[in-house]
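#random but structural
TW: two for the price of one
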Amino acid sequence: MPETRHPQSLRGLAHPLRVRILRVLHERGASTATRLAGDLGESSGATSYHLRQLAGYGFVEEDEKLGRGRERWWRVAGPETAPDQQHAVAVADFQRVQDFLSLTGAVPPEWSGSVALGSRVLRITPAEATEMLGRIDRVLADYPADRPGETAPADTARVVFQWQSFPQIR
């Protein structure tokens, strides 16, 4: 399990816009403050400010390969520079569920059978947990991934499949 640097670094996730920015960067890859502002319905000043805050806490970093001139591209920092990234992903995933639950009445009827929120506590070994995650990964690989910028078939929607797997310590 990655080591958490310091509780102070988790303050970087205290603002909901920062969590939303991280989620978009995780899902779609590197972006600029202006693009993120458009995606999130925010001002570019706000996204720029929060990107700098996230960078200060080590959650994002500039992608200098993509930047041209004054244009700054940002990406999620790698695990070697952001050991708290796992916490950031969990917070973003929780926020995604909260956002969905606030819109539950907006789910089209044809999608109602495809929505699942649940949990199951298992008694398994570390090797079994690793094997199960590999099996889940192989199942998901059979389905087309969302690729931002690519045209998707008209009858499809972005579907988020998220899960957690961790030993229950207490």
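TW: number two ↓
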Amino acid sequence: MDAEPNSTVPPDSAPRKPVAELLADAGLRPTRQRLALGELLFGQSGDRHVTAERLYEEALAANLSVSLATVYNALHQFTQAGLLREIAVDGARVYFDTNTADHHHFLLEDDGELYDIAGANVSVSHLPQPPDGLRVARVDVVVRLRRA
């Protein structure tokens, strides 16, 4: 989803690299399906939060011949390459975020939409010490909202 006008993180105004260049820079071979899905994800201005199912529906609407499994595979490959950030909500819902910078999210529970919160606007303190040999990689805060 694009950043809303009242979002706490301004929309990305810098022009994006061509998708083929993004994939190559991330070490991914620019296959036809990766390019097509990458265009749906990264070809628009602003950052997006999508589920695999939503991206699959967008691909079908764009007359792309891909399976849901291919969409899942591509999203996970993009995530492993650092192009996307995975956000798990309620254990069952997984979103993929094109904004990989440090930030958190509002979740509108009524419709499942995510909105960015700038990382500097959330403070997390007193994290427990991780077990030996492990380090904290990232802390994701999801603030749940309901319409008043």
